[in-house]
Structure formats: structure tokens, C-alpha cells
Amino acid sequence: MTQHGEKQGETGRVTVCVYCASRPVPERYVRLAAEVGTGIAERGWRLVSGGGRVSMMGEVARAARAGGARTVGVIPRELVEREVADTEADELLVVDTMRERKGLMDAHATAFLALPGGIGTCEELFEVWTSRYIGMHAKPVVLLDPDGHYRPLLDWSRGLVESGFASRESLEALTVVEDVESALRACGVE
Ligand code: AMP
């Protein structure tokens, strides 16, 4: 994570780091990923992703590129085959560890957007969410949840405020939205 207030992006242009599923998931989620990729391109923004061609991760990058967006993929060497490295990416960064992957994705991003995903997506989301609430960065952290995929997790998180394990401010560090337009609007906020 970069420090709070540090200037992001080579040209100040929005670069959205998208976290999402890497496993086969129902078609509607793949379409959602495509919609996000297209929306990023329409705004003249850039995408940074996990650098795989599979599932939602592959689709968001394909759609972003099809719309003319620059895409950067960051993939650990040992996942190059499993997640089918996105060799079409404008920049494909092959790293040694998951930690390096996340670090480079962070360094490129001006905003983080999580789509429906599994435990890998949650791991990535929680890191940027928690580091935002403790003040290590001030980039938007957005969760796009159109159909309640994350409802149990969000209910549990709200319960932490009731029981005293989390502050209300820490929950407010995450922007939860239900449609692509709102998600991208939240990503574009300085
Ligand atoms: P999943 O949500 O489980 O489909 O995983 C989504 C993506 O998160 C996949 O590309 C995983 O390789 C990636 N991932 C899982 N754990 C980590 C981690 N600790 N650091 C970085 N990426 C991860």
C-alpha cells in the first residue's frame, strides 16, 4: 500500500483494480464483469487485474481492451498456467509471490473494486478495506454486489459494530453499491 495522500497513476488518470472470481461461475457474473470492463473503457480509464484469462477476471480485461482501455495484469509465476496468463494485456507483470502481486496491483491502482468472488477475492478486498480504515491509503474501496452475494458477509460485518469488534467508521471505509454505474462513479471520486 502506498501512503495516504500519495499521488497515484502516471497521468492522474483513474486506474481501477478489479478483484473478482477466477473460477467458473454462472454466466450472469461473467456478463457483469464485461459490463465493468466496458464501463472502465468508456470513461477512458485503465484496468489493473490479476492477469488471468479465466472466468470474470478474464472477461473484465477482455471487455476493457475491446473498448480501448489499457490493461495491466499481475500474475504470480506459479499461476501462469492455472489462471491462463492474459498475454493480450498491454502489460503483463509476472511476479514470484502473491504478496508481490497484491503490492503491484495496489501501486497501479487509484481505486479498488470488488465484484462477486470467492475467498481469494475476499482476501484481496479485506486487505485494501482494512488498510483504508486505518489510514494507510485514501483510495476508494468499492464493493459491487448486485444480487446479495455478499449479504451474509455484510450482515456479519455490521454485527461487529453492535458487538463492539468494529467501529462504524471502519464500515464506512467500504462503499457498497448494487449497480455498475454507481460502482464506477464511486471509483472516480478523488
Ligand atoms: P477467488 O475469489 O477465490 O476466485 O480468487 C480470485 C483471485 O484472487 C484469484 O486470481 C486468486 O489467485 C487471487 N488470490 C487468492 N488469494 C490471494 C492472495 N493471498 N493474494 C493475491 N491474490 C490472491
From TrEMBL:
Q: Which Gene3D superfamilies match?
A: 3.40.50.450
**Sorted UniProt keywords:** Cytokinin biosynthesis, Hydrolase
Single Gene Ontology BP term?
cytokinin biosynthetic process
The EC number on file is: 3.2.2.n1
- MF term (GO), any: cytokinin riboside 5'-monophosphate phosphoribohydrolase activity
Which reaction is the catalytic activity of this chain? 9-ribosyl-trans-zeatin 5'-phosphate + H2O = trans-zeatin + D-ribose 5-phosphate; N(6)-(dimethylallyl)adenosine 5'-phosphate + H2O = N(6)-dimethylallyladenine + D-ribose 5-phosphate
Write down any Gene Ontology CC term: cytosol
Family matches, as Pfam families = Lysine_decarbox
**Superkingdom of origin:** Bacteria
| Family the UniProt entry places it in | Belongs to the LOG family.
For this entry, the protein name equals Cytokinin riboside 5'-monophosphate phosphoribohydrolase
Q: Which organism is it from?
A: Actinopolyspora erythraea
